[in-house]
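Q: Could you fold this chain for me?
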Amino acid sequence: LHYVGHGISGHAGMAVGVALRPEKIMLSKDKPKGEYNWCEGEVIEIVYFGAHTTYHLKLDSGKVIKAQELNNTRDLSCGLTWGDRAYANWNDLAMVVLTH
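A: Sure. Below is the predicted structure, expressed as structure tokens.
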């Protein structure tokens, strides 16, 4: 389930999509406390780019999302590796709603 923390234009019941930038997604081994704006999956790829690391998370639905973390410390903050179950979560203001 998603909760959008800002207004959108349109009418009730209209079809919409949601866009979310990888750097707006936070990863954790722990289940988020909130009811909205999170999903669970398996880490299937980790790509190190120097300044940041991109994690590919395969959701139970089969879809794959990407999350990025800055490499601003020597210790990778989320501590995830290939095959780990992980939770992705994001702020309610981070989503962009795409109307059709």
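A (continued): The chain has a mean pLDDT of 89.
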